[in-house]
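Exercise 3.2. Students should predict the tertiary structure of the chain below and write it as structure tokens, then compare their answer with the key that follows.

Predict this chain's 3D structure.
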Amino acid sequence: MREKINALLKEVEAFSAENLEELENFRIKFLGKKGEIPALFADFKSVPPEQRREMGQLINTLKQTVQNKIVALKEKLDTQTGDQETQLDLTLPASAPLGSRHPLSIVRNEIIDIFSRIGFTVSEGPEIEDDFHNFTALNFPEEHPARDMQDTFFIEKDPDLALRTHTSSVQVRVMEKSQPPIRTISPGRVFRNEAISARAHCIFHQVEGLYVDENVSFTDLKQTLFYFARELFGEHTKIRFRPSYFPFTEPSAEMDVSCNICGGKGCNICKYTGWVEILGCGMVDPNVLEACHIDNKKYTGFAFGMGIERITMLKYQVNDLRLFFENDLRFLEQFTAAR
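Answer key:
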């Protein structure tokens, strides 16, 4: 064994690498799982007891010599690479990789563009809201479960404040400051105390819409949303309305579109039904208009709200909502040069 170690020491001392690939092959030869040094340690158990101390020291000396050689050659090769880079013509124009928009931003802008073409303006509001704008003005009763800590992130120092659970609070602020006709959409980030999964997150994004004027009907609501869905998903998208309940609208409905991830065959996103619910809607409850000082005998209106994440999942066939929040460049680079 002594002769083999001495021969390997001479080989290490004489080694020189021209590039990083040669250096990596050298490292694998000596330190890899099946390399020379692991093999020597495996044979060490057969060394006579009186020679083990000497052989152990020789093997450790060989290992240290290999490691020192690798570090020295790595520094030398890195320096040479740096010297080559300094020979670049620094007067040439910069060549930077093309950036990209986040897919949620792409879809948000597309939704805004669709509704702006039919007269909706954009309104925004605070993400920390008081109880009146987030719940009371929207006809939430005191005992409503959405007020509970299980659904809402309350501000610890002020129980009247919470992270908004929907952008409907922006609609309340618009109605407080304006008189009909009102036609607005409210995009923004909202927060709910939900378990994070492929279909849900505690932070997500919404676009909510509001139209208040004289003689506004449920037919106006349906035609507006038919137009939106077909502009966003294509003319062949199937759409259906289902009766539902929301405290701030009456009557209320949910709108589904055919799942384009599975083609209607069934998947985890559509819960194997072939349909995906993308928004809730309905006629504005008269109590909401009254709370915002709008004459509910003269005016009617409709409202709707949708999650941008779910629509983006459908549009780009993404099957895990968590990808939107992980900042994985492999995912985001797929949207390079998107609008």
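Discussion points: The first strand starts at residue 121 and ends at 122. Residues 52-85 form the longest helix (34 residues).
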